[in-house]
# Entry
Amino acid sequence: MIISAQHIHLDHDNCLEIIAVKGNSSEVQKLADTLKAVKDVKHGTLSMSTTGKDLI
# Structure
């Protein structure tokens, strides 16, 4: 499901993780919820998009 990840050091105590995923929206939401619940995760945001291919 994870197709790319980027790790950025913001300062001595904080890092930024950017993770790109591809898959079913409910599974992606479940992954995001799981990651946000990890100890010491301070902020988590999920932003989803689509190619529009399967939209009516």
Summary: The chain is about 20% helix and 25% strand.
